[in-house]
Design a protein that fits this description.
Layout lengths: L2 H16 L3 H6 L9 H6 L9 E5 L11 H6 L2 E6 L4 H8 L4 E4 L1 E2 L4 E8 L6 E2 L14 E9 L1 H7 L7 E4 L5 H6 L10 E5 L9 H8 L2 E7 L2 E6 H6 L12
Length: 244
């Protein structure tokens, strides 16, 4: 289809489908994340870089996803979630990613998960009392495997990780602690942290001790950059020199 015809269709269909004019749509920033984290993280890599991400507590392949925008940009990676229902969705909408059905923690074994109709509230069974009472009316308990991040990386023969996203409803620190930082040191980490004093939270202090610096804060998410990657502007050509 010729470019003028494409532009005509775009101008006609865009306001009908999204309630925005074509010009507004092109001038805005499309985000799939809850608080625009994906927009911020894209600034940390060159536009033409195609990296590898690991999304822990990945949830839906598109809705509230920190990595779907990167997937559309040509990145590939691994999505990990304790909800078995997510596997079919990833196979359909992100077939080039690897989906792993598992919980992540500091020890291997099994864990009981609380699954709700409103899946954003899914959590380990010991956290049910933190879920709103009206959401708890639609509850099912599911036992699933739990394993450290380092074991998953080793089993999947993961090499370099450019981006690690962690959103595990209160278990985020345990996920981080389950990594082998000597073998896998992601360039960028986006992690959920609900602490009021998030600049001095356990998660922040832990990642600082592992050689990271807090770069951005958006909603309940903190985005960290590896100090070594910053000082060297990263060994990979994908690391953007715009990070200071």
């Amino acid at each position: 289809m010729a470019n003028p015809i494409k532009r005509a269709f775009r101008k006609l269909l865009t306001p009908l489908l999204w309630d925005y004019t074509s010009a507004e749509f092109q001038c805005g920033s499309l985000t799939f994340s809850q608080f625009g984290e994906d927009v911020m993280m894209r600034y940390l890599f060159d536009n033409d870089y195609r990296g590898f991400y690991v999304d822990v507590g990945a949830f839906h392949p598109m809705h509230l996803s920190n990595t779907y925008a990167l997937y559309r940009q040509g990145w590939r990676g691994m999505a990990i979630d304790a909800n078995p229902d997510c596997g079919e969705l990833y196979a359909r909408f992100r077939p080039k990613d690897k989906f792993i059905h598992s919980a992540v923690g500091t020890e291997s074994g099994t864990v009981e998960m609380a699954m709700f109709k409103e899946a954003t509230f899914n959590c380990t069974a010991d956290q049910i009392d933190q879920v709103p009472e009206d959401v708890r009316q639609h509850l099912r308990l599911v036992k699933t495997n739990i394993q450290p991040l380092s074991e998953i990386f080793a089993a999947e023969k993961v090499g370099k990780v450019d981006l690690l996203s962690v959103d595990c409803e209160g278990n985020d620190l345990k996920v981080l602690q389950s990594n082998d930082w000597g073998r896998w040191k992601p360039s960028v980490i986006c992690v959920e942290d609900h602490e009021d004093d998030w600049q001095e939270s356990e998660i922040t202090l832990y990642l600082v001790s592992q050689g990271y610096r807090l770069r951005y804060r958006s909603g309940f998410s903190s985005i960290f950059v590896a100090e070594a990657a910053q000082s060297a502007k990263h060994e990979s050509r994908g690391w953007s020199g715009s990070v200071s």
